[in-house]
Amino acid sequence: MTPLPRCRPRSRPWRGSPELERGTRLAIDVGSVRVGVARSDPDGILAVPEATLTRDGRTIERIGDLVAEHGAVIVYVGLPLGLDGQVGAAGAAAEAFGADLARALDVPVRLVDERLSTVTAQRSLREAGRSTRESRGYVDQAAAVVILEGALARERADGTRAGRGVTF
């Protein structure tokens, strides 16, 4: 039996960063009809689906309610970019939604690259045995989980917030 290679220990274990306060993080997958929401645990380790909201005049208010309910310290909004990294029509709509959200909330809102998050979410749901029709209500939440997992990985990797702050 071949021994497992030794892993090089990290110089220090990740215990957060002075820049990163403890608290729940929310992630939003913005669609034209629905908005998926995911949340983390207060330590920023796990991302779980939270809700699928119908996109209407109360969507931002309902997200604000979720921020208050979970004591969220930041909201990440998925920014769909093309494979070339450019912002298209869907990206511009997400930027506008993020700006509206930032105006309404008392916590930071950041835009994070969400390329292929919906595709990844759909694949995961298919692999779990859900049909496209069955997963319609869950795919937005699952995409938000993918977005949040990426943001949390960035926080753990270098101790900084993922993405860029929203300006309005």
General description of the model:
The longest helix has 27 residues, at 132-158. The protein has a single domain (25-165), classed as Nucleotidyltransferase, domain 5 (2-Layer Sandwich), CATH 3.30.420.140. Strand 2 and strand 3 (47-54) form a beta hairpin. Helix 3 packs across helix 4 (132-158). It has helices spanning 59-70, 89-104, 117-127, 132-158, and strands at residues 25-30, 34-40, 47-54, 74-79, 109-113, 164-165. The relative contact order is 0.20. The chain has a 6-stranded mixed beta sheet with strand order 3-2-1-4-5-6, with helices on both faces. It is an alpha/beta fold and 168 residues long.
Brief write-up:
By secondary structure, the protein is an alpha/beta fold. The protein is 39% helix and 20% strand. The protein is built from four helices and six strands, in the order E-E-E-H-E-H-E-H-H-E.
Features:
168 residues; alpha/beta; Nucleotidyltransferase, domain 5; six-stranded mixed beta sheet; 4 helices
Q: How many domains is the backbone divided into?
A: 1
Q: Considering DSSP H and I runs of 4 or more, what fraction of the residues is helical?
A: 25-40%
Write the CATH architecture name: 2-Layer Sandwich
Per DSSP, the total helix count is: 4
Q: Could you name the CATH homologous superfamily?
A: YqgF/RNase H-like domain
Average per-residue pLDDT, rounded, comes to: 84
CATH class bucket: Alpha Beta
Taken as a percent bin, the fraction of beta residues is 15-25%
